[in-house]
Amino acid sequence: MKKDIERNTNPKSKSAALFRKWSRLIHRDVSFFFAGILLIYCISGIYMNHRDSINVHYTVERIEFQTNDYPAGKKLKEKEVRALLGNYQLSDAYTKHYYPKDNYLKVFIKGGSSLELNQANGQGVVEILSKRPLVSDMVKLHYNPGKWWTWFSDFFCIAMILVIITGFTMLKVRKGIFGRGGLLLIAGILIPIIILLTL
Q1: CB 3.0 to 4.6 Å from 129: which of 20, 34, 112, 133, for a disulfide?
Q2: 3-state class of 199 per DSSP?
């Protein structure tokens, strides 16, 4: 009992407890403040990791069709091309068209969409691009879209370092960096190092 009282009245013990308390408060508040942007970076980061197989900015709807209305050897005029696009409510989105080779029509549509038609066999395809809601805008943040965002993202990185440091200091040493926390820290550092060495 006497030892417990002495431990509780020890100035160093009080200082350490106060330091851990402030570490927890800072860790909590900074985490709450930056939770939104961290979540945005995580979600958009997953898309960025798979950008070779996923178009991060657009979804592509592919519509295949068959028609005998446009015989081989006939070069379509704009009016006829617009009529063809009208089947997909894209008449007003017409930009231009041309024939890259005989009997092969290619139409450019606003927004990056396109239509291709092989007039020799009547087979065609329409590719309609639609901007991915939210995800496309979130991905842009990875490319520092403006000066103010650069400053904010720098502040965010500094804050994340602070979260890491307070994560180390908000627990008692034996329960933190010199305990299980230290083992997890080492494991977390070793994993990316091993992956880099195997690339």
Answers
A1: 112
A2: coil
- Give φ, ψ of 114 to 5 degrees: -155, 160
pTM over 0.90: no
The count of domains in the chain is 2
Angle at CA 177, nearest 5°, toward 174 and 180? 70
Which residue range(s) make up the domain with 114?
58-131
Q: What φ, ψ does residue 9 adopt, rounded to 5°? A: -95, 0
In this structure, are 62 and 127 located in the same domain?
yes
Q: Are residues 101 and 48 in the same domain?
A: no
81 & 109 share domain: yes
